[in-house]
Amino acid sequence: MTKGQYDHEPPDGYPAEYEADVVLRDGATAHLRPITPDDAALLVAFYARVSEQSKYYRFFAPYPELSDRDVARFTQVDYHQRLALIVTVGDEMIGVGRYEGTGRHTAEVAFLIEDAHQGRGLGQLLLEHLAQAARENGIHRFVAEVLPDNRKMITVFTEAGYKVAREFEDGVIMVEFDIAPTDTSFGVMQAREQRSEALSIARLLTPSSVAVIGASRREGTIGNALLRNLRDGGFPGRLYAVNTDTKAPEIEGVPAYPTIREVEDTVDLAVVAVKADMVADVVLDCAAKGVRGLVVVSSGFAEIGDEGRKRQRYLVGLARSYGMRVIGPNALGLINTASGVSLNATLSPLMPSKGRVAFFCQSGALGVPILADMVGRGLGLSSFVSAGNRADVSGNDLMQYWYSDEATEVVLLYLESLGNPRKFSRVARRLAGRKPVIALKSGRATQGVPVGQLVRRSHLPPESIESMFRQSGLIRVDTTGELFDVAQLLAHQPLPKGRRVAIVSNSDALTLLALDTMAGCGLDVAGDPRNLSADATPSDFGLALSEVFADDKVHSVVVIYTPPVQSNGGEVAQVLAAAAAGSDKPVVSTFLASRSVPAELQVPDEDGGAARGSIPSFLNPQYAVGALAKATQYAEWRRRSDSRIPDLPDIDTAGGEDFVAEFLQRHPSGADLDEADRQRLLTFYGISVLPAFPVLSADEAVDRAADLGFEVILKATAEQWRMRPDLADIWRHIHDEEDMRAAWAEMTHTFGVASDPGRAQFVVQKMAPPGVPVVISTIEDVSFGPVVTFGLSGVATDLLGDRSYRMPPLTTRDAAEMVREVKAAPLLYGYRGSDPVDIPAIEDLLHRVSRLTLDLEEVVRLDLRSVLVAAQGATVLDTRIRIAPNEKPRQDTPARRLT
């Protein structure tokens, strides 16, 4: 709760972080927040609307009204051992859930939902948020008493994904379950999240009626353009023009009204094009009318500075509180080409043909040329959203919708920023497992964020975004042209089953270009290219094509056709189409330098467009092969069915959580851990560190080495020494006292501390088996949350940035790719005759570090700074860990919320 949002100040200790805008099962939105003493009247009014049966289910007895004592008890909570969360729509409370501690780690949980809103998923949402808050307050288990015929409440518990125990006692079902998140509960949450968020977008994309608020009859205005485009785009539903100054019965042939409240019929979608300071009043009018969603084209919000940001936050909070999602503000709009919808609620007069490609774009300025490019290529569109400032509806929401949208087979994303990278990665990975997702991210080099988009600024290098895209299975491209090239291929052709590509061409020069591009993209040539003469006949092409399509060693086919003086392109096209018909091998072409799907190579669909099986053409072989390479990489990612999050049964998560809580009691502001604390924390996650013992003199070094039985090292620990390649910071193979004294003398002299050995920062450590040194680290980024990195140890690696990045949790495939994708990886696999190291040991450490940083949000930095990987096993030699309160909680939490 924030000052100004309500008519009262939040009480002391009020946990504002528990507030959330949520999407209900039917796609509408609501606000969830902790209860306060000032909610007494709200609670009484809510309780009066609840049926007698629902009250009986809650209290197990007739309970017609709440006493003053009841109201005080229910609204006054400590937010730790006693917490109540309420759900509101507008000014009304529609549901409440609460827990009350009954023991050290146990609490009783109960819910009451207004009858008119039962069946909208409120109980499930409240349970998720109560469980998350309870875990943060040290509660591990929920119990509840439920009457046997209260099936709805029993379902809330049993379908939450927790392992629920039930007993029948004295006519009441006793329900009990641990509330620690599990793979099952995460899966349930994500499935519910996808369904509800998809429905919230469907409400925007499939309206039966649309009102343009700010419509104008004056040409050249935004309101006029929006109204014309909706009308001329063929929208079959009811269309209304709203303008406060109008007294005419119509504008541009569309029925007109002074306000949306005066429209006689229902209105599903409002397209808003009024001045920014009038938008809030429009939202209230739309709420009163029962509008389901808003497209705000108006500018004057976050893109203009602090005043606009405040206005934008208020707009989104107000709309969500009344159940509405918002596209924009400062948006270009949305398009849906589906039969029976034909909706063009944008500022662009271009209405692409119906197709199988969906597009999300953040930039309104780029949206118009993007639509023009799609129309020019003849690339059909299923739906399009340009979200402008992306204050509410984002690419995450659209991906949730397209996951289950049967009309969409390929998804395109133009991204300027990532508002919630963790959720983006999770949602994109799920979608990419079903449909290709092609992404163009601007600002990779500068990490810039466009004005108007309110996001947390990451401090990670651009390579982290590249790695996240690979981890999620996204097809990353660098230009809009490449974006459409790959889309053109994937919208019409099957995925390749391998990397071997056959070339059939009548141009030696273009064949060489194709071969060069294949070599750069990692594609393999299947046999020798079929180089035909410049005047090759259609039968020549037919013979060559029949050979490559019949060859099981060929996975994809590139066809290059340049016309002779007397072109017989139509006949060649017929031969190519016939040879490719029914084949499961993708075909790309450079056919008469066309940049689309030529009519001669089309398989018509029912709408007159190009169906699957049509053969796309590219301007030159480089573009064709580049698109094919992207499709091949994606197909390989899709085939990796062995990827899973491994079980680590020896991990003690509760022990780690208790350690962190105890550490923060000793260091409220956070601190670096000493060696003993580092070892203790890592032990909870099955990571052992070879002990290192600080020494301040030669005598102390000798004594410590003797205690260890010699065969030790003497190591300088100061960071500035570790980073000096010209200085040997480790003296190895110390066998006896003489060796140690010699090592001490030499190293103290080398590092310039011989005159004051008390300043020397040295440790004595047992020798580890020989191997290759690697580094595994994690950092808690304000935007991405926890990120795991891997690389080989050394100054050159640091300077070149040879690191791999992944966001936890890591699957087996993620860990394997992290090890293999660094450029220095050959050193791990027996480079120049050396012994290969224990790769599974590295992957195991990656999984353990990933799990630790995912479980313990307060571990803001963890470095396994020196891990020596031998032929058998890996030894952790040096670590650094910092624990601190996380001032900005992670954005992607186990409880569903809009961010």
Automatic annotation (TrEMBL):
Domain N-acetyltransferase stretches: 30-184
GO MF, any single term: acyltransferase activity, transferring groups other than amino-acyl groups
Matching SUPFAM superfamilies: Acyl-CoA N-acyltransferases (Nat), Glutathione synthetase ATP-binding domain-like, NAD(P)-binding Rossmann-fold domains, Succinyl-CoA synthetase domains
UniProtKB keywords: Transferase
Pfam families in alphabetical order: Acetyltransf_3, ATP-grasp_5, CoA_binding_2, Succ_CoA_lig
PANTHER family named in the record: COA BINDING DOMAIN CONTAINING PROTEIN, PEPTIDYL-LYSINE N-ACETYLTRANSFERASE PATZ
Protein name: GNAT family N-acetyltransferase
Keyword Transferase belongs to the record: yes
